[in-house]
Amino acid sequence: MTYPNLDLERELLANYRFVIGIDEVGRGALAGPVAVGAFALSSDGLGFMPSTLRDSKLVPEPKRKPLAVEVASWGTARVGFSSVQVIEQKGINNALRLAALDSLSGFELQDTIVLLDGSHDWLGDCGAEVVVRVKADRDCGSVAGAAISAKVARDELMTSLSKDFPDYGWDSNKGYAAPSHIKALQSMGPSQHHRLSWLTKILGDQTALF
Asked: What are the Cα distances from residue 204, in Å, to 6, 51, 102, 189?
């Protein structure tokens, strides 16, 4: 079977004006913010899903940005961020929720339902009804659209940050725990963009020095 499809969106749009797919990127990274994409689809877009749209993890990097451009012309995509400071101070779940609310802030939420990837509602009260689906980033076009939008936006940010911190290799690893990234952390210590509380096993007592 080809994934994703718009079966659930079609069902939801029979009762709502908009479906907004939500997905997060960067939850497991060692450096950089988390990003949450929100992609709004109306019934007018049910026949126009980009043919190459997939879960962002399945899209080769060179094809992600062109696909995100297609997605942006298909519906309306927005991306919200929570900084490393927010992650450290409020925890990852609260950071994700704040980034999601940021991404939703530009939308009219009346007569709208939010389609959230995952097994539980980590979004909470957002001003719209929320429905949760496991593997929605794989199966549901609106959530896949949100995911690729967030992935491209966060990757571009990490590539930009890498210009000032080239030794960590963020232009390639995007802040995740690649061997070269871990090696750089162990030899140089963390930067201001690292999530210090996540680095205990990598750095040991070295974090006390920074």
From this structure: 47, 47, 34, 11
CA atoms within 13 A on the CB side of 73: 7
At 194, list the tokens: 């690292």
Which residues lie closer than 8 Å to 111 by C-beta, 6 or more apart? 16, 17, 18
Tens digits of residue pLDDT in 21-34? 999 999 999 999 99
State how far the Cα of 162 lies from the Cα of 165, in Å rounded to an integer: 5
Please, which residues bridge with residue 30 across strands? none
Angle (deg, nearest 10), helices 61-74 and 141-162: 130
Query: Is there a contact between 147 and 164 (Cβ–Cβ < 8 Å)?
Result: no
**Given pLDDT bands bounded at 50, 70 and 90, which one contains residue 209?**
very low
Residue ranges of alpha helices (H) inside the chain are 7-12, 61-74, 84-90, 92-104, 136-139, 141-162, 170-173, 179-188, 200-203
